[in-house]
Specification:
The protein is of the alpha+beta class. The protein has nine helices and 24 strands. Bound molecules: zinc ion (ZN).
């Protein structure tokens, strides 16, 4: 704008330059510390100073108290809003005044390293002062701090996004992969992953899926005021037609607050135990007599060994309670999980335990309980896995896996109501088709 201005009115340019020049002269002769600082100033700093002096001069000549100057500041480690304002040469008195206003409305501890704070300055008696501060408090709220001229005070506002829960039914046909087909109809990756998890060990989404298999994902979305999907909620219903076989799963929270997915007749498709509690491993030694690699004599190997690289995650092969997660003699770092009154599983030679894996903690099937290692009496990284039935070790690979549990008669009544409710919701929900 200014450039155009100068081109069309050359005499304005001359006036402008005279003003700048006289302003500089004014400051050179009036500024006390100019001489002292002048020697050591680096070029950059003096340029900054000139800029500031120009502004001050501008306000001197035009007698204005308001020069808007916007600055976007990136928060660094150890910063606080107060520190930032002081660094910007705002007086302690003003910083304190602002702080007193904000406190109780905005949680300043939420300011994070790397986020930005936008500050609009005004100039008050040639000193920088705050006109406006804006920053994101968290994902959902933005803080605005304004200077109000009329009352000579600050006003603080917290603008909160309103999220609306929307039930969304995504229906699709698989062309190449579930992932690609679901993403095409606007389903977020995290929802697709959760959908696959629900089918657990019943469907292997890499190997079992065929072209033209159908899926439905009925889930909650939380949309902001602009209709943007802000975050995803629970999957209420999952449907898969795989090679002609239909599986329908409803989310249900039982009377003990356990959330699971059940077929319309109240069965869980989760197998009670996984056969292999580790991904990408090779069965290296089965259950039975073998020459022990360290002890040298024939010994009954009462477990199954899976060779895998050190650090490979080991999963809980079934839901249950951790009975032990500690060093256990020749087993090294060892985890044992109690699944029910009959079944337990044990995992040995781990390099380390999973997060929060301690005796007494509940674990879910598939949850990471530790990582492959070679602790205890072991010749190299592998997982030694045991299944115990009534505390006796049995061959996990021959085990006829008990199928998932069925809801009790008491639970079935509530489950049927919930199923109806979900079906009705799905009928009136938004869908991609
Ligand atoms: Zn072993």
């Amino acid at each position: 704008m200014k450039k155009n201005h100068q081109k069309t009115h050359p005499n304005y340019l001359i006036i402008f330059l005279i003003l700048v020049f006289s302003a500089l002269l004014y400051f050179i002769f009036s500024s006390k510390d100019f001489v002292f600082k002048g020697h050591q100033n680096e070029r950059q700093e003096s340029a900054k100073k000139t800029k500031k002096e120009f502004k001050d001069a501008y306000s001197f000549f035009f007698n204005t108290d308001f020069i808007p100057n916007k600055k976007i500041i990136k928060v660094v480690a150890g910063d606080s809003l107060q520190k930032i304002l002081l660094k910007e040469k705002i007086s302690k008195e003003e910083v304190n005044k602002i702080y007193q206003k904000i406190k109780g409305i905005v949680d300043l501890t939420k300011i994070r390293q790397g986020q930005t704070i936008t500050i609009v300055f005004r100039t008050k008696q040639n000193k920088p002062s705050i006109s406006r501060i804006t920053f994101q408090v968290d994902e959902l709220s933005t803080a605005y701090i304004y200077y109000r001229d009329k009352v000579d005070d600050y006003e603080v506002r917290l603008n909160q996004k309103n999220l609306e829960k929307v039930n969304f039914l995504a229906k699709g046909v698989i062309v190449n992969s579930l992932f690609a087909s679901a993403q095409k109809i606007d389903v977020d990756a995290e929802v697709i992953v959760e959908f696959a998890r629900i089918f657990g060990f019943e469907i292997d989404f890499q190997r079992d899926i065929r072209k033209n298999d159908e899926f439905q994902i009925f889930y909650e979305r939380f949309e902001d005021d602009e209709g943007e999907n802000f975050k995803n909620g629970n999957i209420l219903f999952a449907y898969l037609k795989n090679s002609g076989r239909e599986i329908k799963l409803y989310q249900y929270k039982d009377s003990k607050n356990n959330i699971g997915y059940f077929t319309p007749d109240g069965k869980s498709i989760e197998k009670a135990l996984m056969k292999t509690p580790i991904n990408g491993a090779r069965l290296s030694s089965g259950f039975g007599f073998r020459k022990h690699p360290i002890l040298g004599y024939n010994k009954l190997h009462q477990g199954t060994d899976f060779a895998a690289r050190r650090g490979t995650p080991v999963m809980a092969s079934g839901s249950g309670t951790v009975e032990r997660a500690s060093w256990f003699g020749a087993y090294g770092k060892y985890v044992r999980i109690r699944h029910n009154s009959t079944y337990k599983t044990a995992y040995a030679h781990l390099s380390k335990f999973g997060r929060n894996i301690k005796a007494g903690k509940k674990v879910r099937q598939g949850q990471i309980i530790g990582y492959v290692g070679s602790t205890g009496r072991s010749t190299g990284p592998h997982l030694h896995y045991e299944v115990l039935v009534n505390n006796k070790r049995i061959n996990s690979q021959r085990l006829k896996l008990p199928s998932g549990k069925k809801l009790s008669k008491n639970e079935m009544g509530n489950f049927n109501l919930e199923k109806q409710r979900i079906d009705q919701l799905a009928e009136i929900s938004r869908t991609n088709k």
